[in-house]
Amino acid sequence: MNNFLGLWFDSGLAQITLGQLLMMAVGLVLLYLAIRRGFEPLLLVPIGFGTLLVNMPGAGFEAAPVFDSLGHLESPGGLLYYIYHAGIETGLFPLLIFMGVGAMTDFGPLLANPRTLFLGAAAQFGIFATVLGAAGLGASGILDFDIRDAAAIGIIGGADGPTAIFVTSKLSPDLLGAIAVAAYSYMALVPIIQPPIMRALTTPAERQIKMEQLRPVYKLEKVVFPLILLTLVALLLPSAAPLLGMFCFGNLMRECGVVERLSDTTQNALINSVTIFLGLGVGSKMSAEKFLNAETLGILTLGMIAFCIGTAAGVLMAKLLNRFSRHPINPLIGSAGVSAVPMAARVSNKLGLEANPHNFLLMHAMGPNVAGVIGSAVAAGVMISLVGG
Amino acid sequence: MNNFLGLWFDSGLAQITLGQLLMMAVGLVLLYLAIRRGFEPLLLVPIGFGTLLVNMPGAGFEAAPVFDSLGHLESPGGLLYYIYHAGIETGLFPLLIFMGVGAMTDFGPLLANPRTLFLGAAAQFGIFATVLGAAGLGASGILDFDIRDAAAIGIIGGADGPTAIFVTSKLSPDLLGAIAVAAYSYMALVPIIQPPIMRALTTPAERQIKMEQLRPVYKLEKVVFPLILLTLVALLLPSAAPLLGMFCFGNLMRECGVVERLSDTTQNALINSVTIFLGLGVGSKMSAEKFLNAETLGILTLGMIAFCIGTAAGVLMAKLLNRFSRHPINPLIGSAGVSAVPMAARVSNKLGLEANPHNFLLMHAMGPNVAGVIGSAVAAGVMISLVGG
Amino acid sequence: MNNFLGLWFDSGLAQITLGQLLMMAVGLVLLYLAIRRGFEPLLLVPIGFGTLLVNMPGAGFEAAPVFDSLGHLESPGGLLYYIYHAGIETGLFPLLIFMGVGAMTDFGPLLANPRTLFLGAAAQFGIFATVLGAAGLGASGILDFDIRDAAAIGIIGGADGPTAIFVTSKLSPDLLGAIAVAAYSYMALVPIIQPPIMRALTTPAERQIKMEQLRPVYKLEKVVFPLILLTLVALLLPSAAPLLGMFCFGNLMRECGVVERLSDTTQNALINSVTIFLGLGVGSKMSAEKFLNAETLGILTLGMIAFCIGTAAGVLMAKLLNRFSRHPINPLIGSAGVSAVPMAARVSNKLGLEANPHNFLLMHAMGPNVAGVIGSAVAAGVMISLVGG
Amino acid sequence: MQSTLMQGGMDLMLYGMGTVFVFLTLLVFATAATSSLVQRFFPVDEPPRIPSREVPAKTPVPPDILKAIQTAIDRHRHRH
Amino acid sequence: MQSTLMQGGMDLMLYGMGTVFVFLTLLVFATAATSSLVQRFFPVDEPPRIPSREVPAKTPVPPDILKAIQTAIDRHRHRH
Amino acid sequence: MQSTLMQGGMDLMLYGMGTVFVFLTLLVFATAATSSLVQRFFPVDEPPRIPSREVPAKTPVPPDILKAIQTAIDRHRHRH
Ligand code: NA
Ligand code: NA
Ligand code: NA
Predict the structure, then answer these.
(1) pLDDT at res. A164
(2) Where are the domains of chain E?
(3) What global pTM score does this model have?
(4) Residue of chain C nearest A274, judged by CA positions
(5) How far apart are CA A41 and CA B73, in angstroms?
(6) Alpha-carbon distances of D71 from A234, B278, E77, E80, F72, rounded to whole Å
């Protein structure tokens, strides 16, 4: 009979808390958004499922291993415990993802028109404006944010998932769940968030600007670019070196043309495996006490604002550049500077076609798009350097 | 001269024990069964080779690393030491395999005919009858089994390799080698073990029963199924959550249709890599002192009995269901409830064709077949919950 | 203002040392050799890039993690720290590479003509002559080598990257960078280093010797070969068991024909992933204090000598065998005994075609070529056994 | 001691088989309920898939490769 | 305390945006300089690649498979 | 000390080359013996494979893809 009672007290029904129930609902919502609405499914399916797993009462997915006094394992830890501590706390998974993203990134359009780097720079204003906003909420006592939290929240505006996870796991790991969810959700919402802002800040005439055909790019330029980027990082901002170093490594493997085997694995089996574990590991931070609070609402709101400001800053910078340049720039490609590769570039293209059915902006927008990845990683480096000490 | 003597005393010939020689023969037999007889080669080739490696005298495949007092590595551990402790003792490898199996499993036939879940439930009787048998051998003093050993031995009847390895590594790690070998060997022997039992328990008329064509299954049903299964696990049996959670995760990735990249890697590079390491790691428990004893004989005998009882229980349950149902069930598909996917379903199909050359049972038998996987994982959860404390 | 100064003092420019600058130049040279000159790019691209990463001032790629007194992580380690300590210091990565190499190796030509194993044996003389040379330089006080360093340096002559890394990480980890760079560079230089020696030691008549067509090889011979090799290792030289055991395991997976899934992953996703990490991890040992010294010059010189002696020994052994055999052996295939698969075999083929346009030696040279891999692993085992204690 | 062991085995069997049947029975009902919900409320969601007669191949040819093959065939046909 | 937090946020913004712009500006110059060097000194290195209009497929068909397809097509044509 | 080092190097060379030759010689005999056993007792086991003239490609086209190509070709031929 004791056994039977044991089974019952072990059961989920007897142990479940309201918070866990709500978080399981959150997990299901994330899965719904990912599967039916197409919200960044590669990450939100694992994050959503991880949320379900970690909130199952008594399942022990997050349990730490127990060792006896001699160091022998008495009871192993849970799967998500190992994933989080081996891959996210150490930063390994975001860095490997960045290597894979580097191996998938074509810098051709950026090299053909390097000025688009300025658009990628401007769009990072969304990050820092949001830092200020979060700091304001913290300073006024409305929400419980310190400067490290503020920095981590700001990075949502970078529209770059692995960067956000890397920075947050270093600066403010308790906010990891909310920040990752916000970052990936808003990246998926780019086609809804950006167009009104882009239309509001541009005239029809500006939206019809036709850009010059991109010049061809030599293979050697592409091979040398990651090395130049790495050199600048080494000289100016070593705290951005982990992210950008692995990014450049992946890109060099892609472009050098002599290690296709490695580049191929990096872009497929390796990044896919790590993506699964990264998502599950982020999910392991989706517990009720960390997610169901006012701070999460603040993070979601601030993240949205960050995207809007970044979008606006990119568009305005494009208009500014247009004043000083004889090569016309369609300001619609400025919004692509927030990164969210390649969604934001597609949005630019779509609005360009709306204004002029013969105006293909996709390749032009890929320049600021990948520039935004570099810009966010630089911003991440500054934050880790200034407040991560 | 000292050096030369050192080389000689280091050599295998000078150190080898009779037990090691016998275990190397066991390893070769496993390789023979896997390669020439087709016994579950994906697992038995690595297990057999791991057996050879761990029994090579002086090779140190199982050596623990040595650290000095400051925590610096003085001498690294052996490959199998790391594999076993990182992947099997922690349960990570069986769980990743289960994720891959989930991503390979099509629940369509089960959803088209959910009653077949009862067949998967009945076949688990083999597990628990064997627990009782092992407990009896232990209680009578014939063999040295306690309740944890008995539970681990019973799980052989689940006909599910990763489940058996997961449970055994938690409850009775010393028996891991024997239990894994028994589980995989008998899974391979299903075409020999099951038919006589199936024929004995059915009449020719029953074997000729033609089942109704399976109804088509909506994609949405398939997407929702892993979530329903997970919810039931969360509410009723959290101790089965690690296994079934990862199984459901893999299956959701397969069916949701938006993460093909991840599902593909899960079904290929990831499960293949883990399978290699899982097999080698199991092999590392195949040492003479753990394998060459009366308990192993008992395990092999009990495991065989478990398979037979499970097969019989599945067939009898199908006959019972037939009494109460207007939709006919061919009792030959009951035996597929032991799992051993897809071998047991093929056996059902083969015997069905023998009875009536137009009677294709394969898809009908896939229902109880995958139900048996769920049933064994539930049984595993009960055992971990009741005796794993 | 403090923040700004902080950013500046954090910056690379303020911190960089001359040694780091020079090492970054070394990294660039390695990348140049790999990408433009085709020097073993699969390894030298990651090693070269790892050299850049580890010499970036303040980037912390090699930083150790910091734990507080309760064992919680205060600050995570750098990527290369984790890679080096998890994969190279433990020997896991070289062993997994060896498994992959085994799965890629076809022993058919060797089985058709087992005498070519003698050529693979003779070519190992390069290893041991170099050990003697390094010991001489150490004994005379010219360079700071002890017997462990000498053994590790000698293994360069094995022309086998993972073997060299495995031995060096056990015997002399500080020399790992220089030794790995030397090994892979000279493997790439085989088409330049070997031909003059081969021409000097053979007469035109000898180079024109036509070898008998290789006999067909049964599948069963190929399946049994890795088991025979493993048995000999188990009996005679357990210290070579880790390398040769994994090599045989990979080869058995390849040849047994029932685990194509595993063999395929071993030859692709798995070996590619590990190659990336192995290269980066070796790069992490490319710091100025470990690489920019007289010892590195000594290692590069000795490594070159090792290759030359090995080549010569192989050729001379072929001539010796020819005296005692009625089946003619073209001495040009002797040089392939140093391994450097398949480059050395291609060199033999090329020189054979030069001497006689109808003399195809490629398959004949693959025998000593793979024999050289076994020979080097045996030599590695002797060294680990004699000086690794 | 001995009888405790047998008692433990009996307990395991009873609670085990009980849990297995309760669990799978609930799963039967939950699945059946969901299926009828789906068939009633999302029936035209998409054409249902008829389970094929064969066990599906475990590593299907990736779609991009199939497309490449199709492209190659098409190009080939044009050249004729 | 509160004002320190706002001050920290302001600092982050100023140094952050400053660094981002300085860094990317330097990158613009470095990239442009490299490109003109390449175009001047290594112009015939190989035919430059025109960026395609489409976002490249993330998992292209591996070259060996393409070759196999080509081979199959060729063989097929010979049989006709 | 110094002479110890030279002595160690000599020892390594002697024992090393000795072991390498003994080991590979035994391997020659074991291999030859096995081969003749196989040829005598399992000769018709299956048709022996003649080693091809080329170094085999390291990443062959997977069989399922080859089959898909073949299928595509066959289908294509039928359509003509
Ligand atoms: Na960005
Ligand atoms: Na089962
Ligand atoms: Na060699």
Answers:
(1) 95
(2) 1-44
(3) 0.91
(4) C273
(5) 42
(6) 45, 41, 16, 20, 11
